[in-house]
Design a protein that fits this description.
The chain has 365 residues and is an alpha+beta fold. It has eight helices and 20 strands. It folds into two domains: 221 residues, P-loop containing nucleotide triphosphate hydrolases (Rossmann fold, 3-Layer(aba) Sandwich); 117 residues, no CATH class. It is 22% helix and 35% strand. β16 and β17 form a beta hairpin. Bound molecules: adenosine-5'-triphosphate and magnesium ion.
């Protein structure tokens, strides 16, 4: 099996009722890449996948797979396979027959189909389960059968639409590693859809962060986490403290922002200028206790001990600021909770004021 690249060239998608689910989008997924599309419920993830798999045609622009324009090519003729959130195996068929299902139409003999199914079952570590039926397998095992079945038709691109969301947390985490290993072994291009940032961060070569029909940022997990490009990306991926304000000065790569808590200096990746409405974001683990650069006065409201880490929650004039520190026995805060906290300029980012992720959004199934 070999992966193909997938390109969206100015693709927009409007449903028949006039709702524009995807605004004009350019995106290239590299051949053999594990690529995730991450965004909240309703942002347009499945819609993009439907256009790649051929179940809907874009209203504008082109989908190319392996450099070939897919216009007018139906789902069955595309080099793609799709795995849905609610997978359906055939309950009365044996596991190997489920895997081999798509091969009968290709005129393969029963013996050849069985051999191919066994190879794929080995790949998903179910080689000894070929003669069972789906009801005799666990949820995670059934999910792996679905993956083997999708791979049986030798797709160049595997499209996975929240394939783990029906599984419990422990199994989900286990399956992350399994999926990643299967992708590496096969070299098939994976486009993986999820609203779970943990899944996207742990499995993907690159991630597209999507909101309300637009891809707001594409990058590695590290890039998206450490250098978010929009207020939405900063608030959707990982935890972030936010302080609103207005840019007052720019010097080099840094900008200064005036806020209710004082004037702070931070990175300015989007090249905001003086006068622009802005939001400063800083991760809890980038916050420091004591008198530091970008210091401010705050009051400790709550402390959560996480063993090796301490999560401290401060109030600064009504703004909640989280500070995560290692639990090294050195954390000393006066009884009244008053403390100075701050952050290094290089670990904070100033972005255009804009829509934020709703809290708890990632929990919406
Ligand atoms: N057939 C349709 N006709 C009209 N609007 C639709 C149709 N299908 C989806 N939509 C709308 O398009 C938007 C995007 O839907 P889509 O299914 O792509 O979201 P999603 O990101 O996959 O969400 P989820 O995480 O909940 O699966 C939603 O607002 C949805 O209501
Ligand atoms: Mg969806």
């Amino acid at each position: 099996m070999r992966g193909n690249d997938v390109t969206l060239d100015n693709v927009s998608i409007t449903y028949p009722n006039g709702f524009r689910a995807v605004h004009p989008t350019d995106l290239t997924v590299q051949a053999g890449e594990f690529f995730s599309i991450l965004g909240p419920s309703g942002c347009g993830k499945t819609t993009i996948l439907r256009a790649v798999s051929g179940f809907i045609e874009p209203s504008g622009g082109r989908v190319l797979i392996g450099g070939q324009d897919m216009v007018g090519i139906g789902p069955n003729a595309r080099p793609t396979a799709l795995i849905f959130q609610n997978l359906a195996l055939f309950p009365l068929m044996k596991i190997w027959e489920n895997v081999a299902f798509g091969l009968e139409a290709r005129g393969l003999s029963r013996r050849a189909r069985r051999a191919r199914a066994e190879k794929l079952l080995d790949l998903v570590a179910l080689g000894d389960q070929a003669d069972k039926t789906p009801s005799e397998l666990s949820g995670g095992q059934r999910q792996r059968v679905a993956i083997a079945r999708a791979l049986a038709v030798e797709p160049a691109v595997l499209l996975l639409d929240e394939p783990l969301s029906a599984l419990d947390l422990k199994l989900r985490q286990h399956m992350r590693a399994e999926l990643r290993a299967i992708q590496r072994q096969t070299g098939v291009t994976f486009i993986y859809i999820t609203h779970d940032q943990g899944e996207a961060l742990t499995m993907s070569d690159r991630i597209a962060v999507m909101n309300e029909g637009r891809i707001e940022q594409v990058g590695t997990g590290d890039e998206v986490y450490s250098a978010p490009a929009t207020a939405f990306a900063a608030s959707f991926v990982g935890e972030a403290n936010r302080i609103d304000g207005r840019v007052v000065a720019v010097n080099g790569d840094l900008a200064e922002i005036d806020t209710a808590l004082g004037r702070f200096r931070a990175r300015n990746p989007i090249d905001l200028g003086a006068g622009d409405a802005a939001m400063l974001f800083v991760r809890p683990e980038a916050m420091r206790l004591g008198h530091t650069e970008n210091g401010l006065s705050a009051r400790l409201m709550r402390r959560d001990l996480e063993g090796a880490f301490l999560n401290l929650f401060f109030d600064a004039q009504g703004i909640e600021l989280a500070v995560h520190v290692t639990n090294d026995g050195q954390v000393a805060i006066p009884a009244d909770g008053a403390a100075e906290i701050g952050f290094p300029s290089g670990r904070a980012v100033i972005l255009p004021a804009g829509p934020l992720a709703r809290t708890g959004q990632e929990m919406v199934a």
